[in-house]
Each structure stands twice: as C-alpha cells, then as structure tokens.
Amino acid sequence: MIHIAILGATGSVGQSTLDVVARNADQYEVFAVSGYQRLAELLQICKKFQPQLAAVPEAAAAEFQQALSAAGCKTQVVAGEEGLQLLASTPEVEVVVAAIVGAAGLVPTLAAVKAGKRILLANKEALVMSGALFMDAVEQHQATLLPIDSEHNAIFQCLPTDFSKRSFAEQGIEKLLLTASGGPFRGWQAEALKNVTPEQAVAHPNWSMGRKISVDSATLMNKGLELIEACWLFNVQPQQIEVVVHPQSIIHSMVSYRDGSVLAQLGNPDMRTPIAHALAWPKRIAAGVDPLDLMTASALTFEKPDEIAFPCLQLARQAFQAGGTAPAILNAANEVAVAAFLEQKIGFTHIPDIIQRVLDLSPIQAANDLELLLSEDRRANQLAQYIIQKRH
Questions:
Q1: Of 168, 303, 302, whose CA–CA distance to 230 is shortest?
Q2: What's the CA gap between 332 and 338, in Å, rounded?
Q3: Please, are residues 103 and 127 in contact by the beta-carbon 8 Å criterion?
Q4: Closest Cα to residue 57, out of 3, 115, 100?
Q5: What is the CA radius of gyration of the chain?
Q6: What is the torsional sign of CA 369, 370, 375, 379?
Q7: Is 9 helix (H, G, I), strand (E, B) or coil?
Q8: Of 275, 214, 288, which is closest to residue 13 (Cα–Cα)?
Q9: Contacts of 44 (CB under 8 A, 6+ apart)
Q10: How many CB atoms lie within 10 A of CB 323?
Q11: What is the distance in angstroms between the CA of the first residue and the CA of the last residue of the chain?
C-alpha cells in the first residue's frame, strides 16, 4: 500500500487525484491532505478517506479539529506553514502531490524534495520561482520529480526513458512542442479584450480548472509559466520549445526528433490521465477516463499564438532569459494582477501592463538563495498592489 499526501486536496487537481486513488484503493491510501479556504470540502474529504493528517491555516485549526472529532474522524490537524511541511516530509508518505496554487506551494514542495519523496508536480510556480535551486535539490536529495500538468506529462511520455542522462542532441531531439488551447478568447483582437469580464475569462472551453489558472489560460500566462517550467524540467532553452495553439486539447504536447518523427500524446482532456500516469509510473493504472475515440473526435487544428493580443507569453519568455529573480517577480506580479482582475479592480488587458511595470521597476538579482526569492516574491507582490491601487 502506497501512502499519499495531497497538498491542495480541495482544488481541481486534488479532487482528480482523490478520484484516481478511490479507483485504485487496493494500491493507494490517502495519508495526509491540506486545504486553505474550502474547509467544508476538506472536512468531507477527511470523513471519506480518513487520512492520518490534515493541514489547515492556523486560525482555523482548533475549529477544524473540533469538527473532525464531532464527525468521529480521527484525523490529526496540523497548522500553517509548518503543518504543510510536515505533511510533505512525514516518513510514512511515499508520494506527495504538489497541487497548491501559486507561490504558497514552493516551500512545502521543497520540503518534499528534501525528504526524497516521489513528487507529482502540478504547482508550476515552484519551478518558475526557484528553478535552479529546486532542480539542484531534486538531484541532491535523490527525489523523483514527475510532472502532472497535462502538457509536461505528455512531453515526459514522448521522451526516451533515460532522457535526463543524455543531452537532447545525443538523443536526436530537435524541439518540444508545447500545446495550448488558446483559452476562451482565442482569435480575439486586443481591442475586443478590453471589456471582457471575469466570468468570461474563467469559462475555459475544454478544461475544468480553478479561477486563477483559468485566467492565466485566458491571458496565455499559463503557457508562459509552463514554458519556464519545461525549460527546468527538461533542461532546455526557450528557443528549443515551440508553443502551438491546439483548440481541441486532444494532443497534449509533442516531441520533434531529428529524423522527422514527431511523437505525440493524445487523450481526452481530463487531469486524471496524467495523475494516474505519474502515480503508477512506470506502470499504468485505471484513471476513470474514457478512451479517446478517433472516429468521433473533431478535426485536429493548429495555429501560432497571437503574442500581440496576448503578450504574457512573451513576458514569461523574457523573464526566463533575464534569469535570476526575474521569473519570481513575474509570477508574483501576475498573481496580484489576476486577483485584482477577478475582483474587478482592473481590466483584463491591464494584467500584462502591470506585470511589465513591476518587472521594469525591479532590479534583477542572482537567485541563489531561497530566502532572497521569497523576499523578492513579497516585494513584487507589494509593488504590484501599489501600482493597482494608484491605477484604481
């Protein structure tokens, strides 16, 4: 029986993971879970799966423990940042699903790495913020890092099994093809984007996701963050990655080889597929996802991303090229700008403007210290809030 800790159990990735685990209950057991805002849902998860540990914010810990006791649940509550790190590093856990959204997921995910766990990584911000530090820690502590973002998992499946031990040139790989759905505003011109609403932005045509990541998909920042993540995961430069808009989300990404071959991973758009793949790798287990029926699937189309109407992709590429603390600053500014858009404090097209402004006002430093990165995250967060308040 393999014991699992799910960091971010109430989110879409966490819910998908719980579904896969429930379908394979003879092999996997939920040992620990965490939640932040949706604690009523976390309580129901605890009642159903009976984990040993649950991490919640410090302010809610006592009340949540009382609710568990009243429900006859023996789950022990741990609180705050220390509680999250305990969940990620506890010796009984073999697999950690890193699904906390945003910068908040960095420290507990690093705790899992330093404990040498198998990490199923959905928190792309951990690599965006601290790529070199993070990957060095993975190697130093002999952790196993498996991506469960659908695109990175697809690339992982299309690469040779020993890709990390040899360079791309040695393996005849030309480039990675990172697919993007294009989001709900694919084909829109910049002028038309000025008046879109949060409700329109979170209505993704293919995927069921949280509000923040749905807005990132609409701005193409999600693809920019994924590009940075792919650079670190697969040890490539941005020029070795081509972003391809594929509206049907059937091909999840591809790898192009020197001999003219292009290997692609196809499937219905459902996060349970990459989660099940990484959970059981190198084996395969049931995910509850319907097999792809090519006879009834719609036509597969591809186009280039519009980086004029959607400049966030280019901003991410530039931040990676700048290096150092630039990606962490980009991520912090984006988190604040998206939150402000969802609260209707700014317009949709103001999001990249604010990110650019924060980057322009922020000196770039070498990213060789975790405390520095966290400090720069806080500083960029405050700067973005100040810019928004002045604009508002």
A1: 168
A2: 10
A3: no
A4: 100
A5: 20
A6: positive
A7: coil
A8: 275
A9: none
A10: 14
A11: 54
Query: Are 106 and 85 within 8 A, CB to CB?
Result: no
Residue 260 C-beta-side C-alpha neighbours within 13 Å: 0
Residue type (1 letter), 128: V
**From CA 318, how far away is CA 312, in angstroms rounded?**
10
Whether 334 contacts 312, CB under 8 Å? yes
- Of the candidates 247, 250, 295, which has an alpha carbon nearest to the alpha carbon of residue 273? 250
Give the H or E element holding residue 13.
helix 12-23
Closest among 218, 236, 220 to 228, alpha carbons compared:
236
pLDDT band at 298 (very low <50, low <70, confident <90, very high): confident
| pLDDT tens sequence across 146-193 | 999 999 999 999 998 776 667 788 889 999 999 999 999 999 999 999
- Cα distance between residue 203 and residue 209, in whole Å: 9
Which residue bears the tokens 């690469």?
A: 159
Q: Tell me the average pLDDT across 32-37.
A: 95
